[in-house]
Amino acid sequence: MKILPTFAIALAIIATTSPATAEEKVLNLYSARHYQTDEALYRNFTQKTGIRIKRLEAGDEALLERLRNEGRNSPADVILLVDAARLWKAQIEGLFQPVKSATLEARIPEYLRARDDGKGSEWFSFSTRARVIVRNKASVAASEVMNYEDLARASLKGKVCTRSGTHPYMLSLIGAMSEHLGEAKAEEWARGVVANFARSPRGGDTDQIKAVASGECGVALTNTYYLARLMRSTKPEDRAVADKVAAVMPNQSSWGTHVNVSGGAVARNAPNRDAAVRFLEYLASDEAQVYLADGNNEWPVVRSALTANPALESFGEFKTDKLPIASIGRSQITAAKIIDRAGWR
Ligand code: FE
After folding, report:
1. What is the pLDDT of residue 19?
2. 228 and 272 share a domain?
3. Is the same domain home to 194 and 332?
4. Are 238 and 269 contained in the same domain?
């Protein structure tokens, strides 16, 4: 989620509190999420179940590296990560285990659950974000960027900014494009986008929004929560940035806007398996869904948990791409080849 330099990631790993007593029930949570509302989320689970959460927070890559190194001796029970590309990769590396839960099946839509047919391991989405186009209101008309395909149109020459194609957010989107268009057409599209670059890819999503607001770029791609964060910021300069740009929810008349997720799974060698399943079920409860979604301006996967969020409401009702989340994860292999050949670096 948060982009931190390597040394900061190391420091961000939180040493957990005092060791558990023999009778005390604990859950070891490895989380790439870190928001203020998460404190309330975890406290609430402990109050309900008596299970104490021992948390280890770090960036997605740092967490995965730690899990790999710990191997069979890992104390991890639950793993929370961000983006289908990363979750899928962790799954095929064998870091998750099968989960049988009628609650999770009932509450989370099927396309947002990802079962590995081979080993039966499964991960679940708990919040969603859309990857949208932002345009400079003064220089690019909404009609010019109705679809992701439009980013390759010759009329946008010198106006397109993106982060590196190697980032999971981009791999997932480009992978989804290849699922819809086929690999050859998706590559042709990627080449067109690269030919339209205003500058070589750099920075994160917020940097893209700021570059669109300043006029350096005409259009860019961002996850919705970065824009929502600027809209709801207490800093006037952030709100001024948000005012200069408009979001377009792409592909409304075709397959819908690309959506990605934050998700979780039970770790392969979870010492507290029952507590882990209970925690995932708790994350799918209305109460937890509100904390999860609001903490990062995302949409809950359980629709009944949707609460008022003025920034999210400003995006309006829109059609989302219902591509199975597992196939988005898997498609990163094709996406990586496409970005390589198209020079989307
Ligand atoms: Fe992010």
Report:
1. 54
2. no
3. yes
4. no
